[in-house]
What does this fold into?
Amino acid sequence: MLKFFAMRVLTTVPVLVLVTFVAFGLVLLIPGDPAVTIAGPDATVQQVAAVRERLGLDRPVVVQYWDWVTGALSGDLGTSLFTSRAVSTSIADGLPVTIALAGTALVISLLIAVPTAILSALRRGTWLDRFATVGSSLGIALPSFWLGLVFVLIFSLGLGWLPATGYVAIEEDPAAWLAHILLPALTLGIAGAAESTRQLRGSIIGVLQQDYIRTARSKGLRSRMVIGKHVMKNASVPLVTVLGLQITGLLGGAVLVEQIFGVPGLGQIAINAVTTRDIPVIQGIVLVAVLVAVVCNLLVDLAYGYLNPKVRPR
Amino acid sequence: MTQTLPPSPAPGPTTDTDTTLLVEDLVVEVLTEHGWATVVDGVSFRVARGETLGIVGESGSGKSVTCLSIAGLMPARQTRVRATTLRVLDHDLTALTPKQMDDIRGPRIAMIFQEPMTSLNPAFTVGDQIAEVLRRHEGLSRRAARERAIALLDRVGVPSPERRYRQYPFEFSGGMRQRVMIAIALACHPDVIIADEPTTALDVTVQAQILELLRELQREHGMSVIFITHDLGVVADVCDRVLVMYAGQIVEGAPITELFEQPRHPYMEGLLAAMPRMDQPAGELASIPGHPPRVGAMPDGCRFHPRCRYADDRCTGGGSPELVQLGPTHSTRCLRHPELTLRGTP
It folds into this structure.
C-alpha cells in the first residue's frame, strides 16, 4: 500500500509542472499589456515602461517563469496589482472558507445520498424508490442559483431559522459557523447528492445480485452486516469515481454559491481578480485550485486501492 | 455454541435424533411476468445423520430452488415458500423469523455453491471471509477466529494457510477457492451441508480432489450432505441415496445402486442412457427428446409424458400422478411402473 501511495504521488509531479506552465501562460494569453492597464489610460510611455520594469515584465519570459515558480514553491505568489496585498495572504483567507463550504456540501450530499440509495435499492419498485428517483432527477435538473434563492426565501426570510448571508469562521463560533454554512452547503451539495444517489442505487442493485452476497447470507450474517460490509464496499467504487468528478465541480459551483450567500471565499476573490485583470491573483488561484483537484484525485485513487485489492501493485 | 439460537419449539410428535433434515410437502412459488408460478411442487424427503442425499435433474427442475428455499435464501419479495414440515434437528424452520433463520444458517445449515469464482467477495481477504462466520456465530475474538480460520484452511488442503489467510480471492485458483468455500461452510460444524453443484465449474482432476475432500470431512464430522448435481457420475461417486427431480416434482427416489440398476421412472432411464460410458462404443449416446416444460405451462397428467416413449392414454390426462412407494426406500411417480421393465446400468 505504501509503494502504491508513493508511486501515485510521484505521477502527480509532471501534472503539477504542466499546471505551472498553464497558470503562468495566462499572462501571455490575456490580451493587452498588464503594464498599460496598471499605469492607466493617461500614462506616458515612460510611465508604462517604469511600471513594466517594476513588475519585471521587461525580462525574458523564461526568467519570469523561473522567478514565479521558485517563489510559488516558497509560498510567495507575488503581490496583487491593485490591493498590494500578498496573493498568498488573500488565498490563505479565502481558501479555508471555500474548502469548508465544499467539504460541508460533500458531507451533506453523502448524508442524503447513502441512506436514500440503500433504501431505494432494497425496496426497488416501491413508492419510496420512485419518490427517490423523481427526487434525484429534480435535484440534478434544478439550477443551484434558483435553489439557493428558494432556500433563502424559506429558511431565512420565511421561517427565520438561518441567516441569509455572511460567514463566521469555525474557530470563532462553531454554532454560528454551522448556521451560516448550512444553506450554502445544502445549495451546493444537492445536485451532487442527487447524482450520487442515482449512481449508488444502481451499483447496490447490481451488487445485490452477485453470488458472493448470497454466500454472505448463507453464512447467517445479519442483514446490516451483509449490506454495510459486503454490499457497500463493492458498491462504493462507482460512487468514489463520481465523487472525484464532483469535487472539482464543487469548487466551480462554490464561486456561484459564494456570490449568492455573500460568503468570502476563494470564489469572490477570483471574480474580483478576473474583472480587474489582477494577473498574479488569478495565477495564484488557478494554481491552488488545480492543487486541490490533484490532491482530491489522489485521494480517489487511494480509495480505489482500498476498495479494490486488484488495483494495488504487488 | 447453541446459545444464540432461538429456543426450540415444543418437540414434535416424532423427533428421532437420526433425522437431521425433514421436509414435507414443500411448495415454492416465484413471481414471474405472468404472476405467481409454482416451481417446486410438493417435495418431501428426509436426510439422516451422516447420509449423502443426491438431488439430480436438468437445469430448471427445481433442485436448487428446493435447497435455497430450505435455507431461506430465495429473494423474499419474489418468492412464496410453504411446507407442512421444514425441520432441522428440532428447529421448526417454518416458525422462524428471518432474524432467527440467520442463526440457523452457519451452525445448522451451511451451503457450498457452484461458482467458486464469483461466490467469494473480491473486496475482502479470504481469511476475513472465513473468520467472520466464526465471529458471528461463535462470538470469537478477532485473534481466536483467525487461528481457527487458519486451521480450517489447513484442513481443507490450502497450502501455507497463514500466508493464504491474508490473500484475496483473485489470488486463488478455482479449486482453491472451492476449498475456501468448503472451509466457510464447515466453520461452525453444521448438521447439514447443501452442496449446489460444487464441482461443476472445476477441472476433472480438481473435481475428484474436491469430492474426496467432502467425503473425508463428512466422515470426520458426521454431517448430512445434500448434493445437488446433474452429473450422474458424481452422484454414483458420492451419494447414498438419490432423488430425481423433474419439472418441480420428485419423480423417483431410491438408494444409489438400486436406482442405477433398476430405475422405475422413464425419465431416470433416459438420464442413465444419456450418460457417457467407457464400455460403450462412442456415438451411441442417447438423449431424451424434447425439452422440460416451462414454468407456468405444465402439461396435464404426468409432466414427463410429452417426452416419454412409454406414455399412453392414462398418462396424458387428469392431475399429476402421485409419488408411489414401491418399497421401504424406493418410490416413483410413473403410472405404468408395474408393467414397465426399464433398463438400468449393470
Chain A has a mean pLDDT of 85. DSSP finds twelve helices and no strands in chain A.
